């Protein structure tokens, strides 16, 4: 066990719990379902930017992305920067309209918006089922990734690492609610920035400077410096697919969209766009450039997912390694807490309360029930991650893309097309989900494009066709 690395990591976890205790005390004074799930819509610009950034960035940005940059070169850094407009797109497309509708309907979840827009309980059930199934898949992957990270970094068993991560994340999310989530997102975002900057600085130092590192990369393989990458991997269809999957498509991710329900005012949106875009740019550029430059220091790594953990232990002193270890862990925790809260809100607000004729249920009782549901979901995730299935990375990609295929068009067209109706939305959700699942399962690429591209195109077409049937909703801004 690496005790020299554990101490700064323990300090990080203590701070996470301290923030959650503060959030719990604040929540107890209000004790309402709206406060538990969206913090009574009081989030300012800085917190909005940090929670969106932290929710969007997961282990892939700290482990998988830099590993791909290590393998394919500087072209992957350019590819990663495609994600730069992600926060701007989310807040520009959904932000203000979501906030107005959320206040008009007292909406707490994404399905609240969909129900009041389309007046279809079947659509809400389909959306809720899709969300829960996909979130179980993505959160299981995040649990496994965090456990593997702790296991390899501090030399403990996989099961112990899984329990440490799972119990910590589930408890602070369950008892702190949305306030704990966004405050920890802000703290974790700062940790990510510090960790990414620290590692990049040390990599440049150990490589002998940027110029020397580039010269070394050229001697290893000139294609590492080419825009197309090694083996000409970065083709136009690949890059276009990547942009849709990890940038434009995130408008349709429920846990990202839900953040747009909780900000305070239009000033917060404008600040969130600027701050969030800057943070996304810094994190993406520094981590992926680190992955490329690592090839000049450690040219013989064969398993790309181990690039960052190996680099961390190779060039950082133990205490600094402990600080950096908190960065990818923070990225995972922030994603999981957002999805845990959204899953709990879906079960309580959309499924349980949605079927009750009288919704005047005691708020304190509902809040306690939400805490229990969140903890139970955490237990389910521990069970599913205990013996992870083979090829779990494909489960993660399938869940991520299926959420976009299901939610993107009903959200965007529902907000901006007054004649959109529930028939079109249902056709889009079903078509998008079926086509994406089929293509992703059998790994079919049409003209070299990722499955998300034909799934979204067909989903959009199905919306237009299905919209000929049924009547438009009564009211839209």
Residue-averaged pLDDT: 83
Distance between the termini: 58 Å
Number of domains: 1
Runs in which pLDDT lies below 50 for 5 or more consecutive residues are none
> What is the beta-strand fraction?
under 5%
What do you see in this structure?
The protein has 477 residues and is mainly alpha-helical. The chain has one domain (3-390): Sodium/glucose cotransporter. The protein is built from 19 helices and no strands. The protein has helices at 3-30, 33-38, 45-56, 59-72, 74-80, 86-105, 110-118, 121-154, 158-206, 210-220, 236-246, 254-257, 266-297, 307-315, 318-352, 363-386, 392-416, 422-442, 452-466. Helix 8 runs antiparallel to helix 17, helix 9 packs across helix 15 and helix 18 (422-442) packs antiparallel against helix 19. The longest helix is centred in the middle third of the chain and has 49 residues, at 158-206. The chain is globular and about 65 Å long. The mean pLDDT is 83.
Main attributes of the structure:
single chain; Sodium/glucose cotransporter; 477 residues; mainly alpha
Q: What's this model, at a glance?
A:
By secondary structure, this protein is mostly helical. The protein is built from 19 helices and no strands.
